[in-house]
Every structure is written in structure tokens, then in C-alpha cells.
């Protein structure tokens, strides 16, 4: 390796610029930004204002926060549903007057005042919901009208009844407890107030409802796309109506709480709250376009806005300055949100793909007649087709005890061809994703890796069961991606554990080409234990981990590393447990699935062949990086997967035979093969058939199932 290449390796392999794109794709980054803003805001004002963190000061601030947060949570639900509610301040003020009026003017008990405030919020929420949801009026204009009418009505009521409220002698211990008490009572008078406790309960319930319930999912779906939600069978009008009702009820509760705290209603009650609440929603990271956001973000936004507004007042700035700051904050947040939504994919396409330097080892020729162990014959050209023109993408094939043949298709189905002639076929199961690697357990159930979905099981009664979609999360890395992104091939150990590969943790199954261009070792070997349902990572740092096959000893397995053109052996049991070694390296082809052979050796598929041009490109990461940014994808340089073959190797990794289709008419590209009763059944992810090749001298009674489970085929 030259000095220049050493410098390239240092630059592209060890400087982690790929972390930028990695971080931007993570869900937690949406919460991290408002969280950082929250911490900065609290630290800035806490260090500037004397006594900011005193218990008495925090007690007063948190009471306001409780009431404000409840309003923000209600407004957030409306925004997530694709709407907007400018009337929250007016509803809040009217609910406040309803509670105060019932208690101080009409001398009603506290529970009646509470019901009056909630009923006020419910009525206005229903009005907004009916007009926007069922009448399909513009949310902005509709709630603006409600804001004006509600504020006018509140001002009239305050003028008419203000004197009676101020001179009333009504009192109640419950009223005072709700307004000024702590949930811990006299034991901790500066503890969390009733308003804070109510806000926390509502936020938790709203979070669970939005993330774990059908109505919450419907709200997010409607906010994301009303037309798509309608076409999916969601009752869009009712869902929109429900969001405004929830917002109105939240305003009603908050109005009751502030009524208890202040024991009065003034002209400034709720004034400007719609701006402050909307600012909190957006500053927290919720999208005004709907369908994207969370309750947690809303709560963080509420804390940011309240700390900022109260802090500015305590620093001596007037109300006008406060409103200006909120306006600027809202404008900046909306601008950033719109620009990020519009340009997110463009930014990620610029920074995500970060190729590394990799130098492939010298290899032997696979050309026919070259005299090397890898020299391909033309034997696969004699394979007879099964399901010609009926199949699309049979990546893997497998046979059961009754000689029936199974294959996955890119349409999300597992198709069964019935023995003995394989002329008749049926859809055995519908998975939904692209079934890749297949294996059959002792009970005849099929285990399959489904691209971008996970590990699944299909029993003899065709019942589909999800086994695993993610691994146990790591506590040592915030970048750990536990989700299975490209589960590829699987095999079953004698004790029932399922060993399978996740080819890459950076790309989904359909983006395998990007993984090959980047060349970063992000593949891993996993194990699923049916006893406790856990999925654990055994090996990582593999360059597109692919085929998995149990060795004949039942204590180890062979695993293909496609882009490195290597085959490894890993001992999961026995005296060598944990041992990992490379048994074949620097092959001229890219290995795929591996399966047992009847003579104690192993079959291995080559999905494609190495080329000098691509081997050279792997040593030019800068060129590959520019290629992905400047050229359309159909002009990129990819690994050659248009021709491949089948290779047989023994326990030591010695190549025994190499089969190919030199004319490219039957099976130019091979991703799997399975020996069964003297025949080799061949699959290919780009093929429209399954090949059936008669193996000379093979045991006509040997089956893979009997080799694994000790029965007769």
C-alpha cells in the first residue's frame, strides 16, 4: 500500500464524518434539539436571575407551568392532527370566568365550578370541531372568529360581574387546596402543586394515547395526509372533531386551575395565550404541517416559553418586549421547521453515504479452463426451470419432508410448488415484506428473514408469527441501531436457536447497493433464542454479512461476508465455543447463501463476480463519494451481480467444485441453492424461475431435513 493510500485510509476510515448522517436519521435527534434548547434556557436565566432556583420561586413558576402545559398539550393534539386552534386563550379565559362565577357569584360548590369550566371548554371545542371537521371550514379563520367572539364575551362578563366577584365572601378549603396547596399537603408546602400533578397526568395519558392507541395513530395519520387517511378507512371528520374537543377540555381544566389559584378573573386573563401556546408547540419541535411531533416535545416547548417569558419580566422587560421575543421565536421555529422538512432528504443524500478505503486481496481466476479451483464449468446451463415466468425473485429455496419446494418472492409471499413434478403451485403464506433466507425446524415450521422487517415463522397451518424485529439495545452507544434493517439468511441449531445475519445496520434491504458502494463494515451475526424470545448480537463489524449454515458437527456455523469475498466459521458451542476464524478469503466471487451437501461438504452461492474496475474503485473513496453526489443512480459503478455460480467447499475451506452458467441463459445470478435427493435447487433474487440441476454421484436419498433432524426425507 502506497503512502497516499495510507493517507486515504486514515482520512476515510478513521475520521467519523459518517456520524453526521447517522445522527440526523435517528428519531431521538428530534427530541435532542428542544432538550438542548431547554437546558440552555434554564441555565441562562437561572444564572442571571437571583433566587431563580429557590423552592418558593420554583413553586410559583411550576403552578403557572402546570396550567400552561395543559393548554399546550391540547393545542399539540390539534396541530398533530393537521389543524390549528387560535381560540385557546379565549376558551381558557371563559372557563376561568365560568369557574369563578359559579363559586363567587352564584355560590355553587367547587365541583359545580369545575363542571362549569369543563363544560365551557367542551362546548367551544365542539363548535370548533364541528365547523372545522364536519363543515370543513378553514381552521385558521374559524378559530380566529372563535377567538374574537370568545374574548368579546369574556370582556363583557368581566365588566358586568367583576364587582360581585371581588366583594364575594365565598370560601372553601378544597378551592384553596387546588389553587395553592401541594400534593404532599402541609408536609411539603413547596412541593408539586395540583396543577403540576394534573399536567403530568394529562401529558402521560396523551403521550400513551398518541403512541400506543388507535385514536392516537389516527390523529397522526390524518395530520400526515388526510386523503391517505381517508383512503385507509379512517374517519377523518370525526378524528378532526375529536382533536378540537380535547383541546377545549384541556383549556377548560386549565381555566379551572387558574381560577382556584387567583380566585378572580381580570381583563388580561388568557390574553396572548394562543401565541405563547403555539410558540411552545413549534419551539418544542412539533411540525405545524401536522403528523410529526410528540407530547414530550410540547412539554419541553412549554417549559422553554414560560421560563423565557417569566425570566424576561423578572429582568425588567415589559410585556411588549415579551411579545416581540415570542414572535421572533415563533418565526424562527416555523422557518427552521419548514426548511428542514423541505430539505431533509437533500441534506441526508449529501452527508449520509461516506465510503471508506478498502483494498481487496489478490484472487485466483474463475475463468473456464484457467486451471484454478474456482474455474467455472458450464454445468448450470443444463438446469431445468421450475415456475418459469411465474416467480419474481426467489432469493432462497427449501424443501420439506414431503419433497414440496418453497421459495419467497418480492411480492411478499412464500410460494409452495407441490411434489413430485412441481407443476402445481400455491401461495403458502403472505408475509408482506420480501422473504429472503429460509430454514425448516424440527416441527416443519419455516423460519425466514424478511427484508427490512425481521425474523418470522410460518407453521404447517400457515400461521405467520413475528419472532424478532430488533436486538437488545446497547447502553454504551447512543448511535446503536437495534432495529433489524436487512435481515438476510438464517439457520437453526440443534437446540432450536436461530442464527441469522443482519447484513447492514446503516441501510434497509432495498439499499444494498449503497452499502456496497460505502463498504463500511456494519453487518452482524445474531442469535434468536425461542426460550426467552431474546435476540442478541454475536459478531459485528462485517462487510455485508450474508449466508449462514450450520456445520455438520452441530457446534459451529459458516457465514458469508459478501463484499469482503470471505467465508468465516464461528463456534457457538463445544470446546471451541466463541472461536471465530476465516476459512476462505479473497474469492473471485461475492458469496451469498451457504447450505449443506450430502457428501459432508457445503454448497455456496456466488451472487456476482469481482471485477478489476470495482476493486480499484474500492481504493478510491473520494471518487465513490463524488459519484453518489453528482451522478444519477443508474450511472453509478456497482459490484457485478449479473453473473455468478455455485461453489462447493469442504470443512477446511478447500474448493471442491465450481458450477456456472457461462451462456447466462438459465442461472447467470445465483443467491441460493439447496441439495435434495440428488438434485440441486437454485434460487436467484433477480431470477424468474427456480433451477433444478441433477448432481452426478449424489446420494438420491439424502435430504437437508434428515441431515439436520435425523429423520428420513
What does this structure look like?
The protein is an alpha+beta fold. It has 2 domains: 11-350, Orthogonal Bundle (ABC transporter involved in vitamin B12 uptake, BtuC), CATH 1.10.3470; 381-467 and 483-709, Neuraminidase, CATH 2.120.10.30. The chain contains 19 helices and 24 strands. The strands form 6 sheets. The chain has a 4-stranded antiparallel beta sheet with strand order 1-24-23-22, with no helix packed on it. Strands 2-3-4-5 form a 4-stranded antiparallel beta sheet, with no helix packed on it. A 4-stranded antiparallel beta sheet has the order 6-7-8-9, with no helix packed on it. Helix 6 runs antiparallel to helix 12. It is elongated, with a radius of gyration of 33 Å. The model has no long low-confidence stretch (mean pLDDT 91). Residues 488-574 form the Strictosidine synthase conserved region domain. It is a multi-pass membrane protein. The chain crosses the membrane at residues 32-53, 65-81, 88-106, 112-132, 139-159, 191-210, 241-264, 270-288, 295-317. InterPro entries: 6-blade_b-propeller_TolB-like, ABC_transp_permease, Strictosidine_synth_cons-reg.
Physical arrangement of strands within the biggest beta sheet: 1-24-23-22
CATH architecture heading of the largest domain: Orthogonal Bundle
Mean pLDDT: 91
Number of strands: 24
CATH class of the largest domain: Mainly Alpha
Largest sheet: 4 strands, antiparallel
Q: How does the helix and strand content classify structurally? A: alpha+beta
Strand content: 15-25%
Number of helices: 19
Counting structural domains, the number is 2
Low-confidence residue ranges: none
Report how far apart the termini are. Answer: 53 Å
Q: Report the C-alpha radius of gyration, rounded.
A: 33 Å
CATH topology of the largest domain: ABC transporter involved in vitamin B12 uptake, BtuC
- The best one-word shape is elongated
Subcellular location: Cell membrane
Membrane topology: Multi-pass membrane protein
Main location: membrane
GO molecular function, one term: transmembrane transporter activity
